[in-house]
Amino acid sequence: MSVWLPSAPCTPGACVEPTGTAVAVPRAALRLAAVVALVGAGVLLSPLGGRIPAGAVRRWCRWIVRAAGVRVRVSGAAAPAGGTLLVANHISWLDIPLLAAVRPARMVAKAEIRQWPVAGALVARGGVLFIDRDRLRALPDTVARIAGALRAGQAVAVFPEGSTWCGRAQGPFRRAAFQAALDARVPVQPVRLRYRSDGGTASTAPAFVGEDTLLASLWRVVSARGLVAEVEVRDAIPAGAHLDRRSLARAAQPDASGRQPGWIHSTSVAVARLPKDPARASEEVAVA
């Protein structure tokens, strides 16, 4: 595995705090069954692809989050129509349906997600743009495929940190995907995701970090009481507002206090740069 791969210092043992008051095991089991049933329904309907109305997809994504026992609060304006690059910070597997609830989009995801039970089949049929993170020389082709989808009027969703963080810390937005937005001349729609307890304090229970397994993370979420997902749809950045991917990435990422623009840089993460020669590309595109 390349040393340039995005990584985060967050681990379940170091970052994920106890959920506090947990729901009864039977209720947690019912929540888990409901999530699996909804995802399974998506797998069955996925061959219909773009024939499913966007509004129905948004509602289905919210149902998945609600079935897990997580309330959703959305603020901000609607995402623009047409080709749009949606970008968000990355904390949990819940981020995927939450971002799709803002606007259904083609995801950019690491190839390993193909192996996820049930969800892997769903995303594979849903037009996901997979990237092999061990083949950095394939990065220019991935950027070109993202740009092609954007030019075709599609929305593409990216988690530019390239790795999940616990939510109390965040990584820098990698710049490669923003080059696709520049090449396609489309707006960028920043979205900020937060998870809180019922009392308003930040919660790390939904974090899916380090060596955490999907099943362990699922159970932690469905067992928790009073989780709230906050989805803040920020002002879209118009096409042409920034001339290079560095400034565009900085404008899209809020700082730790939630202001925008801003950029949190972690000394624990190696940040590679995309050289002028695309054949020698060594910056990892953000992955889900």
Main attributes of the structure:
288 residues, alpha/beta, seven-stranded mixed beta sheet, 9 helices, 7 strands, disordered C terminus
Folded structure, characterized:
Helices cover 33% and strands 14% of the residues. With 288 residues, it is of the alpha/beta class. A seven-stranded mixed β-sheet has the order 1-7-6-2-5-3-4, with helices on both faces. Helix 5 links the parallel strand 3 (106-110) and strand 4 (129-131). Helix 7 (176-184) crosses helix 9 (245-252).
Quick summary:
The protein is of the alpha/beta class. Helices cover 33% and strands 14% of the residues.
Secondary structure: elements and pairs:
Layout: H1 12-15, H2 25-45, H3 54-67, E1 70-76, E2 84-88, H4 95-102, E3 106-110, H5 119-125, E4 129-131, H6 139-151, E5 155-158, H7 176-184, E6 188-196, H8 214-223, E7 227-233, H9 245-252
Parallel strand pairs: 1-7, 2-5, 2-6, 3-4, 3-5
Antiparallel strand pairs: 6-7
Helix pairs in contact: 2-3, 2-5, 2-8, 3-4, 6-7, 7-9
